[in-house]
User: What shape does this take?
Amino acid sequence: MKPSRFKAFSSRAPKAWLVIAVCAGVSLWLLLHMPARAEPADCRLELKVLGIAQDAGMPQIGHPEDPAWADPSLARLATSVAVVDHATGARWLFDATPDIKAQIQRLDAWMDRDRPGLGLDGVFLTHAHIGHYAGLMMLGREAAGARGTPIYAMPRMGDFLRDNGPWGQLAALNNIDIRGLADGRSVDLDGGLTVTPFTVPHRDEYSETVGFVIRGGDAAALFLPDIDDWDRWEAAGGPGIEAMIRQVDAAYIDATFFADGELRGVDMATVPHPRIRDSMDRFEARLTPEERSRVRFIHLNHSNPARYPDSPETREVSRRGFGLASEGETLCLDRG
Assistant: This one.
């Protein structure tokens, strides 16, 4: 079996009482998220997970019963990943979330950087839902006052930013420099990094929705936090999720809900995302065990029971040979 190329890291040390109370669950969580081996210190081009939650994060606004209010170890940031070049200090962000402040701070602490400003060489946007672009507001003159930060966006996404406030002001003041993407056309970046967008079906009120294949010289990752349905994608001419998983070393894919029935009083047919359990059923029939081990479920809603280390659903994901993305885990894309 091919050894795992990603590693996990946690910046939060759990409280002693919590360790005692849920030691078995924590052990399972670590087993689920830890790799077969650690990355060497000389990795040059590296992907880092900055958040794993649905757009509104955990805990979510308006849910005072969420245990993450009382236990910060259960809090999670909105889904985003970054790629950094340790040789040059360059770094690229994938989605600008409402938690961008904390996520940039995590990058700064991890890299111990000495560049002025935000040090972002580019931001790639998947679509125009709040958890994926609203963080751009922090690049404006009321906050970072960024200068010409490259924003890579599909045509409708770019038009949405230019034509609507406050995003249009960011462009007018040169806080951001909107650069076009095209379906299936790779963007070649410094250091041998290539990023290839591909369109997927989703609620596209304001923009297209894309995922990205992020490729370095030694490994590649799939970043696909939002999609309506795997079958719809294939029916529309997409390559299919299994084909994409086979191309990469880690597949960060939509896991918003674990199963139907999570949202009380809501017809979940109106919220089309692949359920984790349905995805696992599908992949077990179509992927080898090694291929299934590449799946890193991400973009978990606050209602998703797989967010908890000791839940039966978390155990099921592990037992069936899949993984849950963890904040801070990394994947070496190029060892340099």
User: Anything to note?
Assistant: Confidence is low (pLDDT under 50) at residues 9-40. The chain is about 25% helix and 20% strand.
